[in-house]
Amino acid sequence: MTLNPAYLVDFDGTITTLDISYELAKRLAGEGYEDIDHVYRQKEIPIREWLKRTAQVLPHDMDLLLSKSLEWAAIRPGFERFLENAAMQGRPVFIASDGFGFYIEPILRKHGFFEEVCFIYRNDTYINAEGKLEVKTPHAHRICNVCGNCKALHVVNLKKQGRPVIYIGDGSNDRYGASWGDHVYARDQLAEYSRQYKFDYSPWNNFYDIINVSKPDIKDRSENSLCCPQGRGIKI
Ligand SMILES: [Mg+2]
User: Fold this and answer.
1) Which residues pair with 75 in a beta bridge?
2) What is the Å distance from ligand 1's center to 160 Cα?
3) pLDDT of residue 236
């Protein structure tokens, strides 16, 4: 049985205009962060390792990190209307994020959107028993160490339930989940990767661009996927 499509939506740089995890790192991290970011940009460490190392050089102060996240988070235009449209069309909205994660629910609650979201797949960042900031990645793949949050698995699981998935994102790591999507809205680095891999995608700037497409072309393209979330993970 084919159900209504679901939306799988990235958070940082997609729902919010800024990547809040990156802003926290760039503005608040102490000594050592430049080296961490350098090796990440050189593709010597994956995002999961960037999160864990960056947490070690951020202030170990959740109140500060949360207050700055709330202060800096602006919602991309059209998101409220997008949620209203999705509800009217019977399309559930899931969020999948591979950032620090702790600020997503507070930001959504502040703007009155939390109740409209079906589920949030995210990492968790908290102060551990030693008083240190620590990142947990409960949705990581059991073998593949690329992503902290295996967004591709969430797409595959929704598809197994009979729901086509419309993927909305902006970042380079979105390419794995997006490669399983039945329709992809891509901007910024995700659009660049989509062109590089010759994936069909719809460009978007804000959520009004998504609302304005009443019937997106939905088709399974999983033979072109970049990873096997139910197998060994990334395809080499
Ligand atoms: Mg993003």
Assistant:
1) 16
2) 25
3) 58
CA of 84 from ligand 1 middle (Å) equals 22
> What parts of the chain have a pLDDT lower than 70?
1, 236
Closest CA to 10 of 117, 162, 141: 117
Domains and CATH numbers, the chain: 6-16+77-124+137-234 (3.40.50.1000), 21-71 (no CATH)
Q: Is the dihedral of CA 42, 45, 48, 49 positive or negative?
A: negative
Q: Return the pLDDT at 184.
A: 96
CA of 163 relative to ligand 1 center, distance in Å: 23
- pTM for the whole structure: 0.95
Q: How many angstroms does the Cα of residue 22 sit away from the middle of ligand 1?
A: 10
Question: What burial class does residue 6 get, using C-beta atoms within 10 Å of its C-beta: 0-12 exposed, 13-18 middle, 19+ buried?
Answer: buried
